[in-house]
Design brief:
29 strands, 37% helix
Length: 667
Amino acid sequence: MALALGVDTGGTFTDAVLVRDENEVVASAKSLTTREDLAIGVGKAISAVLDAAKVHPEQIALASLSTTLATNALVEGQGGRVALIYIGFKESDLDRHGLKDALKGDPVLVLGGGHNHAGSEAAPLDETDLLNFLDSDLGVSGYAIVGQFATRNPVHELQAAKIISDRTGVPVTCSHHLSAKLNGPKRAVTAVLNARLIGMIDRLIGRAQDRLTDLGITAPMMVVRGDGALMSAEQARERPIETILSGPAASIVGARWLTGAQNALVSDIGGTTTDVALIRDGKPAIDPAGAQVGGFRTMVEAVAMRTQGLGGDSQVHVVTEGLQGGVLLGPRRVLPVSLIAIEAPEIVHSALDQQLQATTVGEHDARFARRVPGIPTDGAGEREERLLARIGDQVLPLDQLLRTRMEYAALNRLVDRGIVQVSGITPSDASHVLGRLSEWDEKAAHKALELVARKRVGSGDPLAASPEKLAQMIVDQLTEQTSFALLETAFSEEFEKFSLSPKELAHHVLTRLGLAKHRGLLALDAALNVDVVGLGASALSYYPAVGKRLHCQMILPDHAGVANAIGAVVGRVTLRRSGTVTSPSEGSFRVHLEDGPQDFSDVQVALELLTSVLRRDAENAVKEAGAEDIRMTVAQDIRTASVEAREVFVEALITVEASGRPRVALG
């Protein structure tokens, strides 16, 4: 029997699973994710699962990858330096839809050109300004091109892309390739994020393919998209933005496969994020507004997922205000102290012992930094370079690394770009102290939590009486924040709409009192009225308390820790292509195509032409992705208006979906 190999690269672990005939998990394995070279962790996980199943590499008929890398990068604000070419827009348009936040100070050229709503040229493309901009020393890893009404006529985007490619050889993202919808600033956010991710995802896929070849696996490789469908590795390299929520989407597919759940919330806890989504009538809900990750609303079609920066490796923030103080978790991931102590035991333990001997707790105690090899440092400033020189190739305590407040800001910039990783206490360390985990250095975790427990709160007392008390405080906070994430999703998907936002409702005093079964003059009860499927390697450790907190059934299936990897191999290859027909004047019907608009006097001829082009493009794309047994569906959204008792055609959006099984799929 042929076997399918699923691999998921998470923030902390890389999982591998072998599935036979889509109904049997043959074996699974885990390896630490190696951010300096993801292929190392991928290779170790694959080797481990092959050994566990006692199978030969040539028996693998399909390999598929899901990844939280793009999601984590956006949540943590990481990615390459990019440049935006903004054609036909105004400077003020940069303030819309969080575009300036997405750019993070990266270079922008507002360029003359663009088209109008009908697809006619509004102004010629200013090639001179573009060439002058390219000749400056930008130090970027990718370009994003967004033309005004480019979805009506993409000619200027394509012209600019050719000029940039010929001049620089740097990867280029055209916004009309990512979405057929209007709203230039929102398309710009999507294109900028895509350009920012290209280098990162390209390295991952390229190195993963190299590692498969090294191991003797010649099967084609697929990648999971954000809506749970599969795409070819080549397509993923061109459109990495479509892999945001890839890992979470794969977990939904995996959860459905593992449990057969028809209606349930799925909560997947990883090292960096907790991802919550709803399965309704056996299908994951798709977000009609586009995937939202890391505070950015994109135009990427994806599972309706609420992603929180909350995981086993979330940074623990100490709250010293108030008489009792407390802790908050996330959204940034840090390396657990217990894990970095495995890498540099002498440095970590020596620093922790020295800090424990001090009479007061230092601001940076129990925190360390290390450089991630192989990440380009183009555009790094003088302060950043000094910090990198100090770190070198070793693990360095933060109290030895940082000498001024301004250097702390420089360190954050290096972390944002993925060049440096910081280590600190996390829920994973707390679990080691409580005896729930034993994979890494428990003694280092105990020392680190003892240091942090000594910090003083508003009353003058220590934050916690012991490392164990602090560990329980951290785990309880994870339970609390996970519960809020589930409640927010439930309120957002509730049929009955309320006047407050889902976040306000989840945190509302009445919700809190209801969960606590308040009994006073009022009797208040609240609970989740749907099962929760808990996924992730640490789900068994953390999620029973969440189920108890929300008074719901918590389902923790076998193989929950590798649900993402399972979902990566049991999905279908699905691609959608969309296009528009407009009416620039009465009796004229304009089809907006890749090579420019075409006009017709008969609306049916225009609709049929567009449908034919979209069917051809979708079918070719899904075949290139390695699918067979292809099924096609066509959806038409035709808008009309009443004018003097007549129905007048305004616009039509046609979407063609092509779906098939991977050519070497099982069963």
